[in-house]
Write a structure and sequence with these properties.
Length: 515
């Protein structure tokens, strides 16, 4: 350097030894492109923007995928979100629904027409004395024309009947909502449920686009083959030298027996199916809740993904008042999912939905429930379970039964894997003493580090805290060095926290203190 400097001192700057957290949470929506979008079907849109305007520009405002993406971003503007965008299949057919009127109003009143979504597409129709079908059809036309982002088109079959037709072709719209609230003397209304949608897009080539990308949360449309996403995620549960796991969420508008059969066929620890009793009443036809089934899945997926975002405010999607549970992070893996508010979802028709006994039966069959709370003024989640029921040999197994258990298993494993990989990124191994100030470890050093990681997890309400729990792990932690293979063979049993889901007991009553 051309100068004299003594004593000669050198300090190298090295990276921090701090523990690391989980991978950034990345979510995926799979759906069909609308008209006018700048993206193309059969492509993967990476890092979808946050605003409705940008979503509409890219995906096509009236499309199936855009509808789900707007619902997701309405709850979660934080998580990374990709969209696997599909084009309608050649030769596919679009679903349609109709409403027909007869008679003439003998008293003024108001109808509320709901098409697909009460939150987005509910139309108050003011009816004057003497109004008949032609007047009502005209008023519906005006109301729909003023709406934005319609996933359907409207046309008049006759002066008495209006038809709604899905923009995207395929079976996804066959369980959409059409409902009419209100009774007006002199008028009758006949609703025809959505039907006729046929032939969904092929998934084979599009799924290749996500072969090397980890998604912790996936929104999977009910119309698409569930086993396709189940097979993909099941294969990612345990992979060599990496963490690729994630969960998919589906709302299936299927009958009680059918949804049980579907869950049993999947038997996947990585797939959650939501359901409640489909409604085929005179004035309400479609899903139990007044929202598109795929949008319901997107709303829950958005809330779950937000819970994992470190420091994100999650107060609107949790009902606990605990201070640290108002913000997202690794700890939310063990926080119960039941009672999660479903933001923006309207109420089901009173008197509909599964009984408590049916809900419990579905829970045991691997099906989760979305429905009204006891006051009928909000929609919440029931107990959220995966579809996993038994091992490959057919033995009943509850290891992966509850989503909280599955998520807690996952984050414990990921936290340990990522931190061990960082801490021991360039180390020698020995079966003897490890001399200081060198990158060299023995079984005792590995043991100490795993116990340290467990303490960090316990501090975040994921593993059991306390001396007994630490002693349990220490007693059930086996570390065998195998220098000839350059590895440590590790076996451990960790005490994991659970959730308070039930209390049982008995009580006696007396009329005085002598009783």
């Amino acid at each position: 350097m051309g100068f004299v400097a003594n004593p000669r001192i050198t300090f190298n700057i090295v990276t921090s030894d701090r523990l690391v957290g989980l991978d950034d949470h990345r979510a995926l929506i799979v759906g069909q492109i609308g008209t006018g979008g700048t993206a193309s079907g059969g492509t993967l849109v990476i890092d979808l923007p946050r605003s409705d305007a940008e979503i509409n520009e890219i995906l096509g405002a009236n499309g199936h995928a855009a509808m789900m993406a707007r619902a997701f971003r309405g709850i979660n503007k934080v998580s990374n979100l990709d969209v696997l965008l599909l084009a309608d299949a050649g030769g596919a057919a679009a679903a349609a629904a109709t409403i027909a009127f007869a008679g003439a109003a003998t008293r003024a009143g108001t109808y509320t027409l709901k098409v697909v979504s009460e939150e987005k597409h509910a139309y108050p129709i003011d009816v004057a004395l003497g109004d008949g079908p032609a007047e009502l059809i005209a008023k519906i036309a005006d109301a729909v024309a003023a709406d934005r982002y319609l996933p359907f088109t409207r046309s008049d079959n006759t002066t008495t009947t209006t038809t709604f037709t899905a923009v995207n072709k395929g079976t996804h719209a066959n369980s959409w909502l059409i409902a009419l609230d209100g009774v007006i003397p002199g008028l009758t209304a006949t609703l025809t449920a959505w039907s006729g949608g046929a032939t969904n897009p092929s998934l084979t080539a599009p799924l290749d686009l996500i072969a090397n990308i980890r998604y912790q949360t996936i929104v999977w449309p009910e119309a698409y083959t569930a086993s396709a996403i189940g097979d993909l995620l099941d294969a990612r549960k345990n992979v060599t030298n990496d963490v690729m796991e994630g969960r998919a969420f589906i709302y299936q508008n299927a009958a009680f027996a059918t949804v049980k059969t579907n869950a049993n066929a999947l038997n996947s620890s990585e797939v959650v199916i939501f359901n409640n009793a489909p409604n085929a009443g005179t004035a309400w036809k479609g899903a139990h809740l007044p929202e598109a089934p795929d949008v319901l899945a997107a709303k829950f997926a958005a809330a779950r993904a937000l819970r994992f975002e470190d420091g994100a405010s999650i107060s609107p999607i949790v009902v606990t008042n605990a201070a640290k549970d108002q913000f997202g992070g690794i700890h939310t893996a063990s926080l119960p999912y039941f009672n999660t508010p479903m933001t923006g979802v309207g109420q089901p028709q009173k008197g509909t939905g599964y009984s408590i006994e049916e809900q419990i039966e579905l829970e045991g069959a691997g099906v989760s429930i979305l429905g009204a709370n006891r006051e009928n003024n909000a929609v919440i989640t029931g107990v959220v379970v995966t579809t996993y029921l038994n091992d490959a040999a057919g033995n009943v197994d509850d290891t992966w039964k509850y989503l909280e258990w599955r998520d807690t298993h996952g984050v414990i494993r990921e936290f340990m894997q990522r931190n061990c990989q960082k801490a021991f990124r360039q180390h020698r191994m020995t079966v003897g003493e490890a001399p200081p100030n060198y990158s060299i470890i023995n079984a005792d050093a590995v043991r100490s580090f795993i116990l340290l990681l467990n303490e960090q997890l316990a501090a975040q309400a994921l593993t059991v805290a306390g001396t007994e729990a630490r002693q349990f792990l220490d007693a059930n932690l086996t570390i065998t060095p195998v220098p000839a293979k350059r590895r440590f063979e590790i076996s451990m049993k960790i005490l994991m926290v659970s959730q308070f889901g039930e209390a049982i007991g008995s009580s006696k009553y007396a009329f005085d203190t002598n009783g």
